[in-house]
Q: What sequence folds into this?
């Protein structure tokens, strides 16, 4: 799978852009705040329907404009898919695949598989559990629309239950109904998260050992907030607490992931370099997951992440992206070009305008 082209209109600082990508390595370089990440953000939105930078769709619209438009063409070899996204000032998004309107944003998942690796991802181990839950959910949603639908239903029910808890007199019969449905969808999600982490761990642990020359043993463990067996009982047990605090205290929205290195909790005791190696191992494991599940290689987006890694880890990434379409953003290209042994398409980005440079061999 590759992205053939991307067109943008009135998207952040980009008035108009048309770019054709090569099937190999594509480098977007230029100073900070010129629009490089905006291009990756638009690509990511075509895969997930969401920005990785904001929860407010209208923020991607250029200042003073009424709407923004994205068009991306993905090539799967046998056929191509054209994705159009139109974002309006009222935060509404119109999405179409091959000129057919998409009613549910979850229908977009799987049309094109994109894996994004950004400096923020390097905080995955160190930061709070919400970031790790988002990591699981975004990867699983791209691999399974059923999971995406179950997740959407769960969080809709959760919001409605929390609204009910805020009422002056809470209806216990209504809570019984919500609890039953939350448990039903929660268990489905738990099973998929557990399976995903187990599969990812097998790959990531091998990659991590390779990067560290066998000196470190990585262990990745899914930590559910509650067991499948105790889910319904815990919901009942914590109901009075929930009514008092007006929030649901039990469920998959409290799940986490534990990372151990040589048997020690990496979040509490790992170095910055170890955290980064864990994240790199996870991202490269995701590439293998997508290949196995879909039969296609995903498109890999590296948003200024190479500059955050030491030379050894940079070279490991570059050696791992052969035969995978990759879009790399960077403030400079000299170090990258020294390491890439294949053709690379190079684009200079300045003030939202992109210019293709001479191809480097």
A:
């Amino acid at each position: 799978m590759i992205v053939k082209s991307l067109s943008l209109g009135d998207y952040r600082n980009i008035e108009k852009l048309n770019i054709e990508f090569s099937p190999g390595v594509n480098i977007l370089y230029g100073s900070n705040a010129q629009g490089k990440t905006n291009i990756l953000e638009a690509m990511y939105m075509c895969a997930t329907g969401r920005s990785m930078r904001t929860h407010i769709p209208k923020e991607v619209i250029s200042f003073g404009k009424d709407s923004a438009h994205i068009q991306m063409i993905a090539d799967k070899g046998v056929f191509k898919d054209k994705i159009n996204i139109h974002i309006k000032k009222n935060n509404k998004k119109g999405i179409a695949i091959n000129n057919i309107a998409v009613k549910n944003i979850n229908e977009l998942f799987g049309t094109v598989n994109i894996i994004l690796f950004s400096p923020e991802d390097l905080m995955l181990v160190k930061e709070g559990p919400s970031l790790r839950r988002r990591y699981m959910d975004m990867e699983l949603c791209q691999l399974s629309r059923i999971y995406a639908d179950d997740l959407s239903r769960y969080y809709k029910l959760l919001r409605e239950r929390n609204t009910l808890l805020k009422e002056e007199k809470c209806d216990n019969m209504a809570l019984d109904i919500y609890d039953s449905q939350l448990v039903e969808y929660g268990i489905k999600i738990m099973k998929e998260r557990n399976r995903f982490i187990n599969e990812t761990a097998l790959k990531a642990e091998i990659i991590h050992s390779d990067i560290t020359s066998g000196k470190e043993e990585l262990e990745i463990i899914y930590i559910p907030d509650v067991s499948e067996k105790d889910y319904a009982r815990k919901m009942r047990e914590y109901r009075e607490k929930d009514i008092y605090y007006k929030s649901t205290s039990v469920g998959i929205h409290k799940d986490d992931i534990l990372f151990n290195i040589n048997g020690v909790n990496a979040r509490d005791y790992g170095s910055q370099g170890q955290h980064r190696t864990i994240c790199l191992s996870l991202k490269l494991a995701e590439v293998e997951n997508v290949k196995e599940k879909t039969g296609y290689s995903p498109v890999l987006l590296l948003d200024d992440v190479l500059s955050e890694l030491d030379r050894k880890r940079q070279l490991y990434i570059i050696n791992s992206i052969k035969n995978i379409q990759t879009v790399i953003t960077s403030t400079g290209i000299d170090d990258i070009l020294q390491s890439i042994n294949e053709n690379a398409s190079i684009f200079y980005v300045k003030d939202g305008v992109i210019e293709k440079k001479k191809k480097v061999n």
Notes: The longest helix spans residues 172-211. The chain has a mean pLDDT of 94. DSSP finds ten helices and 15 strands in the chain. The radius of gyration is 22 Å.
